[in-house]
Amino acid sequence: MSGLLSAMDVSASALTAQRRRLELLVTNLANAQTTRTPEGGPYRRKDVVFETRSFEPFWKVLAEVDGGGLNGVKVREVVTDQRPPVLVYQPNHPDADLQGYVAFPNVNPMEEMANFMAAKRSYEANIKALEAIKELVRRSLEIGR
Amino acid sequence: MRIDESIMDRMSAFLDFAARRQEAITSNLANSETPGYRAKTVPFADFLASEMGSGTAMRRTSELHLKGKPRMIRSEDGADAGDTLGNDGNNVDLDREMTGLAQNVMKFSVVGRLLQQRLLLIRAGIKEGRV
Predict the structure, then answer these.
(1) Pairwise CB contact (< 8 Å): A1 & B97
(2) With contact defined as beta carbons under 8 Å apart, do B46 and B72 qualify?
(3) pTM of the model
């Protein structure tokens, strides 16, 4: 039973990680036209790198050899996309360079939307897993009735 | 009425197995986009083997020793491993995991119900047929 409860933690870690990713994707979309940032230059798109995170409860380490199964997920780092900014000829723009080109962010709305949908589906899948665990626990509580 | 405990042990072992499988599926779903993650499975064959006594359970020479169980969750790299979709080394197949999830809940429910009915029978026996 404790295994199932830690499995819920695993799902929760995935929900957190995917939500973090969704936040970044929204930030990317919101800043698709931002040409000024505190770091200087246009906004650069950001993305997450996921990493597995061990979820071995102590009792399991102590009592069983069985394990290695519970792997949660966490955001290891937020990476900045290194693709160069898109240069658009707009001589009237206040951020235009001497040749009249403005460096716009390297954000492709199509790509962001595709990632957005993937993140959303992943979030939903993890919610389904969480519901399934709840169902298993509920069923096992019914056994003694 | 003779209470056959072994059948109930089998059923509870199966529930244990299903819970273990649930852990593997949860883990796979959580890491469906983690680079380098390999999908985990809990093969039924392993469960069957350990139930039939032909598994590789560790032998204890003293009751005081900690109980060891055969490793049931394994990383999947066999022939039936899911196709690698991207180039990040991750081989989690979301559709397969979701199907496994639905199946697992159903199997758990069926065996759980069987166990419940078994206990109800025993209770009926204790109460001399009065429910």
Answers:
(1) no
(2) yes
(3) 0.79
